[in-house]
Every structure is written in C-alpha cells, then in structure tokens.
Amino acid sequence: LFYLLTVQPSKRFLRSAGPRLNSLKIVGSVIFPVKVYVKLNHNSPRILCLTNHLRNLELIDPIFQWNGPHGDLSSENSSVQISPTGTLILRHFNLSGVYTCSIVYKLTAMQPDKNLVIKYLIYAYSDPKNYYEFTARYHAAPCNSSHNTSFEKALLQILSKLVAEISCEVTLIQSECHHVKMQRGGLQNEVFFTFS
User: Which GO terms describe its cellular component (predicted)?
Assistant: First the structure.
C-alpha cells in the first residue's frame, strides 16, 4: 500500500485539487508500514498517528511521540508540525526514511495504558527531468479485430504494475496495426506500440 501525491496536468482537475490536497490525511497500519510519497521541498499531507480502528474510537489521555530518520521529532523544528492530536506535517520535505509514531492511550479511565507503534516509509521524490520512450511490436489478429484492443489494454496494465513500486508511469503514445511482408514469408499483421 502506498500513496502517490502527484497528479497529471489537467486544468479541470487542478482547479479542484488545491483544497483536497491540503485536507488529505494518511492513516497508519500496525500490519505493515504505510508508504507515503512527498514531492521534494513541499509539505507532506497530514500523517495521522492512528489506525483506521483507533480513528473511530474515543481515546483517553493519548500521548503521541514521533521519530524520524534522525531521532525524535518535535514542533520546535521549523520543518516539523505536530498537532496535539498527533498529526504530523513535514514542511519543505527532503529526508526520506522510516518515520514512526508511538501512541500511549486508554479506552476507559480504569483500563491500563495501551501502547502502539505505527510505521511509515516516507519518500521524497522530484519531477523527472527526462523520460524514456520505447517501441514494441507484436504479432496481431487482423487489424480491425477487437482482440488487438484487448491485448493493448492488458499490456498497458501489466507495464503499469511493473513500474508502480518505483513511482513511474507508462503512457501509451501511439498504437498502429500494419500488414508486414515477412522475410521469406507472407503477410503478417503486426501492432506497433510507442510508450513513454
């Protein structure tokens, strides 16, 4: 599970993105570290020191403690903001690494303290200065066949899954079907794809 905090340029979407990005809240998990991607030198979304389960409970006397790659985090540092409810915002973010939040709380006043540690893997990224473009060709069904369209969609899904972990994306630029005279052979239908 990871969160990518970029959007493709789209005038219609960008107009509505401002308030929504500021209100984005990331919730933790005790099962696995939650991955958060923050644009280099920008503010992070609100990172909660809570799980989905705890978020829906009333917590008595909660105490929150955040740690980053270099130790304790506090609001005394101008690049860190921690709210009284344990929400973390990293300002002008530039330090990727493991961030943990410890929360000590009670569900009832008579109950002993419970302790929970939530881990986040927070990565800084920057906009790419270059990109790769590649072409591929495949034997195809007749050019007007719907099988070619299905193959194109499946191929794009597979390529997108391959690069999802490294925060890249694959875009299909062009897809063309041609009849190709093969060496020492007959005509073959070929689909030519260009990706970036």
Answer: acrosomal vesicle; extracellular region; zona pellucida receptor complex
